[in-house]
Design brief:
With about 210 residues, this protein is mostly beta strands. It has one helix and nine strands, in the order αβββββββββ. Helices cover about 10% and strands about 65% of the residues. A hairpin with a 2-residue loop joins strand 3 and strand 4.
């Protein structure tokens, strides 16, 4: 999977750098995520999942016209969640995705040095792998759960942040909320569903 993604990233970087229509060009995005499942069960009770912390990052591309810009991205993110029956016993479901958000971004002061902005859009994701981590009496055991989940996920993204501009370079900080709309369970029982939710914080450098 990574062998397919890397050539696409390289080609996108070249296009973003040489095409004037792409405006600010290409940037690097690094950050932190807190993800959890929202579960519905035909037979109650559904599990109350807590948030799973991990790192996130990738590339962002920006085409800007005044205060408005279109911003596609290619990110590696972790979704999933953690359920703990007590401090020594629990279960983590770790779903690693290649995620492609497409955002419409509106800035308040495109000509100023500090530019507050809001963004909204959608995303599609491809599941690279899924693992389950079982913790019992302080011991952890891992299992491959990729076959238990759908390969594709999609949803809505909204966020806000600040951009500092200096010449052709821009540095941004951003908070983002992701609302998964797809049931990620493969072959669920009637009435069962599992959907992704995420909070993310990013630092982005665009040139």
């Amino acid at each position: 999977m990574f062998r397919r993604i890397l050539p696409c990233l390289a080609a996108a970087c070249v296009l973003a750098s040489v095409s004037p229509a792409w405006g600010a060009g290409v940037g690097l995005k690094l950050g932190f995520s807190l993800s959890k499942f929202v579960q519905e069960a035909a037979v109650p009770p559904a599990l109350d999942w807590s948030r799973l912390p991990f790192f996130a990052g990738g590339l962002t591309f920006e085409s800007r016209l005044g205060a408005l810009s279109i911003q596609p991205e290619l990110l590696l993110v972790r979704m999933g969640g953690r359920y703990a029956s007590d401090p020594d016993n629990g279960f983590e479901s770790r779903l690693d995705y290649a995620q492609v958000p497409l955002l419409l971004k509106l800035g308040a002061a495109p000509r100023g040095r500090v530019d507050p902005f809001v963004c909204v859009g959608g995303y599609g994701s491809y599941l690279i792998k899924a693992r389950g981590i079982i913790e019992a009496a302080g011991e952890k055991t891992a299992a491959d759960l990729t076959g238990e989940y759908e390969r594709f996920d999609f949803g809505i993204v909204a966020g806000a942040g600040l951009t500092w501009r200096r010449g052709e370079m821009a540095v941004s900080i951003e908070g983002r909320f992701g609302l998964g709309l797809a049931n990620v369970l493969r072959d669920p029982a009637p009435g069962d569903s599992l959907k992704n939710r995420s909070l993310m914080a990013f630092v982005t450098i665009v040139y």
